[in-house]
UniProtKB/TrEMBL annotation:
Pfam (any one): COX1
InterPro entries reported in the protein's UniProt record: Cyt_c_oxase-like_su1_dom (IPR023616), Cyt_c_oxase-like_su1_sf (IPR036927), Cyt_C_Oxase_1 (IPR000883)
GO MF terms held by the record: cytochrome-c oxidase activity; heme binding
Name of the protein described by the UniProt record: Cytochrome c oxidase subunit 1
Transmembrane segments: 12-33, 45-72, 84-105, 125-149, 184-211, 231-252, 264-282, 294-323, 335-352, 372-391, 403-423, 443-467
Record organism: Pseudogracilibacillus auburnensis
GO biological process, one term: aerobic respiration
Annotated PANTHER family: CYTOCHROME C OXIDASE SUBUNIT 1
Native organism taxonomy: Bacteria, Bacillati, Bacillota, Bacilli, Bacillales
Length: 484
């Protein structure tokens, strides 16, 4: 049997992403154990861990989510496989530079690299560290940008414009609902739009940082830099869910044999989230009193509504498509269904936090990592491994066994453990990004660290399944060759 075109590249990409994610979890565990007073690497190492963990996790999630988006979008429009491969090369090059920057040259300015921090480290790192880190990050961004531009090109070629990719002609009644673009195309169009904006902001601010590091006499407006940086970081991190959610649409509709219809409500929800995702980033700037008040209010108010339209329409759709469908729950569909729960549950503490009253108390506490670990860890990560199991399930005799089902339960419980550890710490006012904790803050951190170890075991079992599949597949190929 011949492989679908591009599938082995997708698999390579998923393996790189999955390996990165489990490795980065290791740094997460080390941080929690340090905060919990169990181990002590010193504050400098903690901030290196924080930097590599934040960058690596977002990078790994983006890489995996790109694989999901590419795989399904490619069924509707013609994408370039060489561009996808080039992205992997740029990604790996970039990650190597980032690792060198963080561990060899000790850059530890966090994945938010807030200007002018890369240039003023009080001796913690030098020019070399800042430059390798920033250039590495730029390479990773460049890889994603070319994949998105190619996707945008393909969508425009087939549907006429990005607006039509979002189904605007259906919303305005010029086209019938039955002829609306498929859900995968709508979601990809949204991602093309928001992530191109994010990557352009990122590129500008990374370049300005690079010039400033080389020549400190060159300065620029720190407030502008902060706006660009958080537009970049907020949108990029958020968009992982909008890429990965394509797996929900495609896998649930294939597993139930029912189509996922892009009706008007669905299209309107996606257009709203496209807009909101791009304009709510000022919720990261609430402490910058020099920001125009209206921008802060818009960011704050719309944060309530940021992902909500798409979340509601997707959660509702997922329930409806599964209801009385006689679906057979396999690892892929189970993880995908679980991810909907993770995404929904993770948004609740985020919405709480975007209430100004709550934000006054919770801002910069571990409540914040609490909510994003829940929706990334139980949302995006579940979508990613759900996709992985799905990709493999029809291919071979290799079937998930008791161990995989055990891993499914372990994964669910332990990521909840990690998330609740953060939320509890936040509720008792533990600040985030602190290398050491007072004694009364340590217990939740230790609990989270132990949960994180169990989480790594669960993810390890997922990865082992995938590796078993790879080994089997190679065997199959050699058999094929022998026959040929
Ligand atoms: C075993 C699982 C994990 C553990 C134990 C863990 C632990 C941690 C810890 C201790 C921090 C620093 C918290 C602080 O500010 O005090 C952190 C930050 C962070 N984590 Fe995780 N994490 C895990 C999984 C993930 C996943 C799956 C993602 C995303 C896909 C992720 C993304 C991030 C990001 C973006 C930050 C913020 C970095 C920064 O503030 O600069 N983590 N994590
Ligand atoms: Cu944000």
């Amino acid at each position: 049997m011949r492989m679908e075109k591009g599938k082995s590249t997708i698999i390579q990409q998923l393996i790189i992403a999955a390996m990165m994610i489990i490795l980065m979890m290791g740094f997460g565990v080390l941080m929690l154990l340090q905060q919990g007073g169990v181990v002590d690497f010193g504050p400098a190492a903690f901030y290196q861990f924080l930097t590599i963990h934040g960058t690596g996790m977002i990078g790994g999630a983006v890489l995996a989510a790109t694989a999901i988006m590419w795989y399904f979008l490619n069924k509707y429009v013609k994408l370039s496989l060489s561009v996808l491969k080039l992205n992997i090369v740029l990604f790996v090059l970039g990650v190597v530079m980032i690792i060198v920057g963080v561990f060899a040259f000790e850059f530890s300015g966090s994945w938010t690299f807030l200007y002018p921090l890369p240039a003023i480290s009080s001796g913690a790192w030098g020019t070399a560290g800042a430059l390798t880190y920033l250039i590495g990050l730029q390479l990773v961004g460049l890889g994603l940008l070319i994949v998105l531009l190619d996707a945008g090109r393909a969508i425009i070629q087939k549907y006429g414009s990005l607006g039509k990719g979002l189904g605007w002609d259906v919303i305005t009644g010029k086209k019938r609902e039955q002829d609306a673009p498929p859900a995968a195309v709508v979601a990809s169009t949204m991602v093309v739009i928001v992530d191109t904006a994010a990557l352009l902001s990122g590129t500008i601010v990374i370049f300005m940082n690079i010039i400033h590091v080389i020549n400190p006499a060159f300065t620029f407006d720190p407030l502008l830099a902060k706006n660009l940086t958080f537009a970049f970081g907020h949108i990029l991190a958020n968009s992982t869910i909008y890429m990965a959610v394509i797996a929900v649409y495609e896998i649930l509709s294939r597993s139930t044999g029912r189509p996922w219809k892009s009706n008007k409500a669905f299209l309107i929800a996606w257009t709203m989230s496209t807009l909101f995702t791009m304009i709510v980033y000022p919720h990261h700037l609430l402490q910058d009193t020099v920001m125009p008040t209206w921008a802060l209010i818009v960011g704050q108010v719309l944060s309530f509504a940021n992902g909500l339209p798409v979340l509601v329409i997707t959660a509702y759709g997922a329930l409806m498509i599964v209801y009385k469908s006689g679906i057979k729950w396999r690892m892929g569909s189970s993880l995908i269904f679980l991810s909907m729960f993770g995404w929904t549950a993770g948004v609740i503490p985020a919405i709480l936090d975007s209430a100004i009253m709550v934000n006054h108390v919770m801002h910069n506490t571990k409540w914040v990592p609490g909510h994003f670990h829940m929706y990334m860890g139980l949302g995006v990560i579940a979508m990613l491994f759900g996709f992985m199991y799905y990709l493999v399930q029809n291919d071979q005799s290799i079937r998930p066994n008791q161990l995989d089902r055990f891993a499914f339960c372990l994964y669910t419980l332990s990521i909840l453990g990690v998330s609740f550890s953060f939320l509890t710490s936040g509720a008792i006012s533990t600040p985030r990004k602190f290398a050491t904790h007072f004694e009364q803050w340590q217990a939740p951190a230790i609990f989270g660290g132990v949960s994180g170890i169990f989480l790594m075991i669960a993810i390890g079992i997922f990865i082992i399944y995938f590796i078993r599949y790879m080994v089997n597949r190679n065997k199959d190929f050699s058999v094929e060759k022998e026959i040929a």
